Amino acid sequence: MLAKRIIPCLDVDNGRVKKGINFVNLVDVGDPATIAAEYEKQGADELVFLDITATNQERRTMKEVVERVSSQVFMPLTVGGGIKSVEDMQALLRAGADKISLNSAAVATPKLITDGAKKFGNQCIVVAIDVKRNVEKDYYEVYTHGGKTATGIDALGWAQKVVKLGAGELLVTSMDKDGTKSGFDIELYQKLSALVDVPIIASGGAGTSTDFTNVFRESTVDGALAASVFHYGEITIPNLKKILKNQGVNVR
Amino acid sequence: MLSIIDYDAGNTFNVIKAFKYLGIEVQLTDNPEKIMRSSGLILPGVGAFGPAMETLEKKNLIGVIKEAVLINKIPLLGICLGMQMLFEKSSEYGNHKGLGLIPGEISAIPEKSGLKVPQMGWNENHLKKDETDFEFIANEYTYFVHSYYAVCDKKYLISTVDYGVEIPAMVQSKNVFGTQFHPEKSGKVGLNILKTFSEKVVK
């Protein structure tokens, strides 16, 4: 059967991999191609590259990084950050990306999802959703621009809408959990899974191997994404997969 | 030399990168003479069946590919949609004729509860052929992205994966090979498929 995917996320700034702690303080952890090759060796199932500062600074995408990585690493690559047009998508796909992740741009221009899906297929279009619980009004709220801008949009409704528009996968980050290392927001993924039938990637909150086991056992997410726990070696992928296998989770 | 058939398929450049990484010389071409003089052919492919066949037809490549494979006996490896196009027909958005190099047809993956279509991700290969250069694929995971699959006789199967139905993952009929998965995105195993095709199948 299809394996659950373990996905390291490489936040990239100016061609270097960074990890934003709560999206703000950046710590340099190195060269994208070197890190990608290391993750391939470890058994990562997919890599996500996010140009985290791209939207704010109006910086263009990281075509060269993708070109370089995909010449040395032969696994699925998702690229996001600063993509604002079908031409941007095409440039990255030609450079070697397999999937394009849209976040702020999808909120600003939902039609971009449909245009991309029509041209490249739904499987190419990932919509990334940054979600924070609005305690006051009691709903999951969508944030954009690297988690800095509250939109007032209900995340559950947004997820359904983007799938209708052509999104082939959702990458959903819980901002409440991100950086806390207290586990994935399982309740959020249970709610989302009941509403949409495209693959969902859980993100935000990974601290231990048990957190991965829990999200796979208690929700139907297809993959789990993390950055710092992998980058700093707090969790190694071979060890994580061994634990998951022992717990009955189907991994590669 | 190996030729990658040039018809603007989406994964062409990643396939070229994989061969380059392996140190295997390939040329990207739609030139009939070059195709006929190749030691082996690669037919990449991503997207929908109908438009892809149309592009091949517009480029006058259908007859060339058939002649190269059937008369000159040049080995061919079709990848993903390129593999599907090796079969006789497909029901993806209407009925379309394929290259007809392997008996069988392309159908939609049946919708079953809990299974998402497209199948997207790594699935485990079950070996279906006793004697093959690709025996190493047994129990290895390879990377799939597809909504349609091949329905064909068992004798053409090298390996299958389980996705509610048994999905042909790697197929062969004589000198014609195909992988539903993306070898250029399947890590070491995938590279090994390309290497084995170019070293053991292509002579």
From TrEMBL, chain A:
GO cellular component: cytoplasm
Amino-acid biosynthesis recorded as keyword: yes
Pfam families documented for this protein: His_biosynth (PF00977)
Enzyme Commission code: 4.3.2.10
Gene Ontology MF terms in the entry: imidazoleglycerol-phosphate synthase activity; lyase activity
Keywords, ordered alphabetically: Amino-acid biosynthesis, Cytoplasm, Histidine biosynthesis, Lyase
Residues annotated as the enzyme's active site: D11, D130
Subcellular location: Cytoplasm
Pathway: Amino-acid biosynthesis; L-histidine biosynthesis; L-histidine from 5-phospho-alpha-D-ribose 1-diphosphate: step 5/9
Catalytic activity: 5-[(5-phospho-1-deoxy-D-ribulos-1-ylimino)methylamino]-1-(5-phospho-beta-D-ribosyl)imidazole-4-carboxamide + L-glutamine = D-erythro-1-(imidazol-4-yl)glycerol 3-phosphate + 5-amino-1-(5-phospho-beta-D-ribosyl)imidazole-4-carboxamide + L-glutamate + H(+)
Protein role: IGPS catalyzes the conversion of PRFAR and glutamine to IGP, AICAR and glutamate. The HisF subunit catalyzes the cyclization activity that produces IGP and AICAR from PRFAR using the ammonia provided by the HisH subunit.
Subunit structure and binding partners: Heterodimer of HisH and HisF.
Homology family: Belongs to the HisA/HisF family.
Identification of the protein by name: Imidazole glycerol phosphate synthase subunit HisF
Automatic annotation (TrEMBL), chain B:
Keyword Transferase on entry: no
Source superkingdom: Bacteria
Keywords: Amino-acid biosynthesis, Cytoplasm, Glutamine amidotransferase, Histidine biosynthesis, Hydrolase, Lyase
Pfam families, per the entry: GATase (PF00117)
GO biological process: one example: L-histidine biosynthetic process
Compartment(s) of residence: Cytoplasm
InterPro entries, per the entry: Class_I_gatase-like, GATASE, Imidazole-glycPsynth_HisH
UniProt key word Amino-acid biosynthesis: yes
Catalytic activity: L-glutamine + H2O = L-glutamate + NH4(+); 5-[(5-phospho-1-deoxy-D-ribulos-1-ylimino)methylamino]-1-(5-phospho-beta-D-ribosyl)imidazole-4-carboxamide + L-glutamine = D-erythro-1-(imidazol-4-yl)glycerol 3-phosphate + 5-amino-1-(5-phospho-beta-D-ribosyl)imidazole-4-carboxamide + L-glutamate + H(+)
Pathway(s) the chain acts in: Amino-acid biosynthesis; L-histidine biosynthesis; L-histidine from 5-phospho-alpha-D-ribose 1-diphosphate: step 5/9
Its EC number(s): 4.3.2.10, 3.5.1.2
Broad class of where this protein is predominantly found: cytoplasm
Residues of the active site: C80 (nucleophile), H182, E184
MF term (GO), any: glutaminase activity
CDD domains according to UniProt: GATase1_IGP_Synthase
Glutamine amidotransferase domain sequence ranges: 4-197
GO CC annotation terms, alphabetical: cytoplasm
HAMAP family, per database record: HisH
NCBIfam families, alphabetized: IMP_synth_hisH
Its job: IGPS catalyzes the conversion of PRFAR and glutamine to IGP, AICAR and glutamate. The HisH subunit catalyzes the hydrolysis of glutamine to glutamate and ammonia as part of the synthesis of IGP and AICAR. The resulting ammonia molecule is channeled to the active site of HisF.
Subunit structure: Heterodimer of HisH and HisF.
Name assigned to this protein: Imidazole glycerol phosphate synthase subunit HisH
Native organism: Liquorilactobacillus mali KCTC 3596 = DSM 20444
